[in-house]
Amino acid sequence: MQRRNFILNSAQAGAALMLPTLSPLAFGQTGPIKIGFMTPLTGVAASTGRELLDGWNMFWKQNGLKIGNRTVEILVEDDGSNPDTAMQKARRLHQQQGVHMLVGNVLANTGLAVAEYAKTANVPYLMPAVAADELTQRGRIPNVLRTGGFSASQITRPLADWARKRGYKRVVTLGQDYAFGHEQVGGFVQVFTEGGGSVAGQFWHPLNTPDLSTYLGQIKALNPDVVFSVQTGADSARILQQWSSYGFKDKIPLVTSQNVTDQSVIRTLNAAECEGIISSSHFAEGRDSPDTKGFVDNYEKAFKKLPGIFAAEGFTGAMWLAHALKKINGRSEDSPALISALSSETITGTPFGKSVKMDSYGNPVFDVYIRRVVKRPDGKLVNAVVETYPQVSQFWSYNPVEYLKQPAYSRAFQGIAK
pLDDT band at 29, cuts 50/70/90? Predict the structure, then answer.
């Protein structure tokens, strides 16, 4: 696909958030700071890819495309939700367009492909959204950092702890049958069973399954205390709609991954289908805090809709990078200095919460929220905070060295305590 030049969304982004000023500095470098941003604008993840880009654009719209006296030039490429295309675009951006860093992608398969290129080419690769556990665990690449996103199993462990504390003892899980589903369910199951809970059954379904009734019937027969569900894309709306239409919503407690009740999903549903559903995430658009409210209000003014997780991740990824570039006086060509600055910076004032920092494996540490879908006074559905788990690591309470000795989560290994 022909390279797309970076064009800021023409919608007005609203007043700037209260962020640290990127004041001019006397830098020695000349020429623009060149950033290659990849996101799916076509293919199965196009809608989430667009929200990631919108959040990214909004930060630069509010803060200006300059770091000191150097212009920030952002070259946007559509990865087509395809790993081969992502690899080609990464190579083109780096080798032909001369970008100083690669940023973006959404799907794990595209992120893994670009990470391999970044490893070979020794170019910084920053991931605001890609969630594959292995990229910041067993497959750690020093110049690949997760700036704004999360590792898949990181988000669901607090939800398992919350569920056990509510007295739930028997869980049935329903997840999409691929790596992200395996990792999110695995993180939940390991903490749930280590806390004394048991797994009554596990069901896996292919991506884009139109009818989940076969699984729902089997789940009911197992008589669980709670059901944990992991879906993305169209499957997210389907599980909520079918859970409600089969009459389970008021009979069997359902807790979900953050994607199931993401704003991109619940804005398309009616309250009867999703109000009251519990999930966990590092972002809650209904959170009562100035930083979150400022971001949500500005995004809503700009795009005429409430932001979801990917918009918040795009904004935070841009914010994190701008802080790091300022810290090294705009020396974007100095990859080691950039990686060091990104790794050592603690970012405050993000849409996520109090602070975000990087662990020694290249993954963020941040607050994780237990969320409930509620209706705002204006009638719009949002995820409001029920409980906060402060500064959650991708390793939870485990020793990282010991944790990494266990297998990666898969259908075969779900971390079930013996």
Answer: low
